Each structure stands twice: as C-alpha cells, then as structure tokens.
Amino acid sequence: MGTLSAASGASAGKQASSVDMSGTWVKDKVKSESMDHAIKLMQLGGLVRQAVKLVRGVEITHTPETFTMAVFSIFAWFKVKETYLLDGAPTMCKRRDLRRGRHTGTAHAKPGKVQLQLSWSDPFSGSGMDEFQLNTPDELSVRSTIKIQGGEAAYTTIYNRKKK
Predict the structure, then answer these.
(1) Dist. CA 38–CA 85, nearest whole Å
(2) C-alpha dist (Å) from residue 112 to 2, 7, 46, 55, 140
(3) Beta-ladder partners of 30
(4) What is the Cα 51 distance to its own chain's centre?
(5) Could you tell me which residues are beta bridge partners of residue 55?
(6) pTM of the model
(7) Secondary structure letter of residue 5 according to DSSP
(8) N or C: which end of the chain has fewer CB within 10 A?
C-alpha cells in the first residue's frame, strides 16, 4: 500500500506508475493552497462553490491498468467519481462543476506520478490537468491547473493518508 518502489516493466504502450496511490486521503487545509482563483474563474454558483471549498478528501484505487478517484465533501450530495485507463484512452465523465454535459479525460502514468488531462465544452468550456504525486508514503500532492476562456488558475492540494 503506497510504496515508493520501482514498478515492473511497461507493456503494450502502457507505462506503469512507480507508486501505488491507493487509499483514503484526507485534505490538509493548512498545507493546501487556496482554490479561490479557480472557483472564481469557473464562476461556480453558491452551493457548488461551498461544496468544493468543503472537500474533505479523496479515495483512490490505483491498479497497473486504471486510476479511480472519488472526491468526498462535507455535503453528501457532492459526488465526483472518475475512472481512467492508464493507457491514455479517452474517458467521458460527469463534469466536476456539476454543470450539464461531460468532460473528456485521459490518464497517463509517469514515473512516480499519475497525470489527468481534461477538456469540456460550453458552458464555460475549458481544459485542465491534475498531477497526482506521492511526496512520502503518507502524503499526496495534487497540482491542478485549469484554463477557461482565456484565464488560468493553478493550485496544489495536499492530502494525508488516513490511518486504518
């Protein structure tokens, strides 16, 4: 669980991540950067804005072939769950801002990291990138960048592994 050891070889165009990020991760509010600029750029409404600000963590299931993340918030109705193939195949998911439509995402395992590339159409069309990386076996950082209608925002969220 969450080791930093080297991965076995890549096969058929897949590059294995050198870490297993599986587990429940709790947001470290003190170490995490503010999401305010990104929230303003996305023009999120009141309830969704509050739910995003009150995200408590993320549950990750990471296998050599797939990467699944499920965000959890204080608000039980705010659910974001996405599963990606690590071979870069496009995946359609519900939009994270809960607006109508879907986003298309791809995932790529890189040494020590998993990178998600996202794009979505109107309303508020844009693109984004999330880069998941273990800093230590018990600390995960997620660097998020979004680009919407000529604007850009980036922030880093730090999570600590929930102890069993």
Answers:
(1) 26
(2) 11, 9, 36, 25, 11
(3) none
(4) 16
(5) 73
(6) 0.80
(7) P
(8) C
Which of 139, 158, 155 lies closest to 39 in space, CA to CA?
A: 155
Burial of 123 per CB tally in 10 Å (0-12, 13-18, 19+): exposed
Phi, psi of 92 (to 5 degrees): -95, 135
Contact 80, 64 (CB under 8 A): no
Residue type, 139: E
* Three-class secondary structure of residue 46 per DSSP: helix
Cα–Cα distance, 109 to 115 (Å, whole number):
6
Asked if 27 and 55 count as a contact pair (C-beta separation under 8 A), the reply is yes
Convert the pLDDT of each residue in 36-77 to its tens digit: 777 777 766 665 556 555 668 899 999 999 999 988 877 676
Q: Are 49 and 31 in contact (CB under 8 A)?
A: no
